[in-house]
Amino acid sequence: MNKKRIIVAGATGWAASELCRGIAAAEDLVLVAAISRKNAGGDLNEILNLGLTAEIPIFKTVEEAVEVEADIFVEYTKAEIAKHHVMTALSASLDVIIGTSGLNDRDYQEIATAADRCEQSVLAVGNFAIGVVLLNKFAEMAARYMPSWEIIDYAKAEKKDCPSGSAKELANRLSKVGASQKVIPVDQINGPKEIRGADLNGTQVHSVRLPGINIALESIFGLPDEQLTIKHNAGGSAKPYVGGALLAIRKVSKLKGFQRGLDTVMD
């Protein structure tokens, strides 16, 4: 069996470390390198106690990591460095999975252009949880029949990305249906315009950041005398995101150019 060789950037982080355990347990995938600035020079196998026989070198920079022979690069760091990581991986002829949140539409357009130029595949996923994929699907369906909606995204107080990557992806998908209809346009309300949230691709989005809150994503649809709420709640662990990320890794090489959303590789 020819195993897919994987490099994971941000490998010792909350979500990526759980993904690395999933990759280590998979028979068709193999971790060959990692990026982690604070653990550079170490062995990921030892740090995460993966139980593997081979050493997995940890590098400080993407330029060092892509010197290792690999097939797929998984980006799971921070928005300020993510695009550089992705561009470098594409130039090294690697297909890319983007799990980092905080990138904007302009970033994705530049990445799409680079993917076409390098003839590589990129899959950007705001949230790898299967439940969120279903929320996106159901919300798109609802938007065709209930033309007024808003999004609320919840996360712990320490999360700097506002809105979350999940909320951005949902707003982007809903924009393909159309812009949410507003009874009173935001520029005509009495009071601070910020009270109505931020307009993101035609959808009002509200980010709640408080201690004690786990990650959640909610889309609310309204018609006269009725309301539909679709909400996904996540627990405190990163386990819900592993299955979807593994699916993305296994499917990305079958794509062409840049794609956004896990559902693009789901049967």
Describe what this molecule looks like in 3D.
- It is an enzyme of class 1 (oxidoreductase).
- One of its GO terms (biological process) is lysine biosynthetic process via diaminopimelate.
- Its EC number is 1.17.1.8.
- It catalyses: (S)-2,3,4,5-tetrahydrodipicolinate + NAD(+) + H2O = (2S,4S)-4-hydroxy-2,3,4,5-tetrahydrodipicolinate + NADH + H(+); (S)-2,3,4,5-tetrahydrodipicolinate + NADP(+) + H2O = (2S,4S)-4-hydroxy-2,3,4,5-tetrahydrodipicolinate + NADPH + H(+).
- The protein is of the alpha/beta class.
- The chain is built from 8 helices and 12 strands.
- The chain has helices at residues 14-25, 44-47, 62-65, 79-91, 105-118, 130-143, 165-175, 242-251; strands at 4-9, 29-35, 58-59, 72-75, 95-98, 122-124, 149-155, 198-200, 203-209, 216-223, 226-233, 258-260.
- The strands form 2 sheets. The protein has a 7-stranded parallel beta sheet, sandwiched between helices.
- The protein is elongated, with a radius of gyration of 19 Å.
- The model has no long low-confidence stretch (mean pLDDT 95).
Short recap of the structure:
This protein is 31% helix and 23% strand. The protein is α/β, with parallel strands linked by helices. One of its GO terms (cellular component) is cytosol.
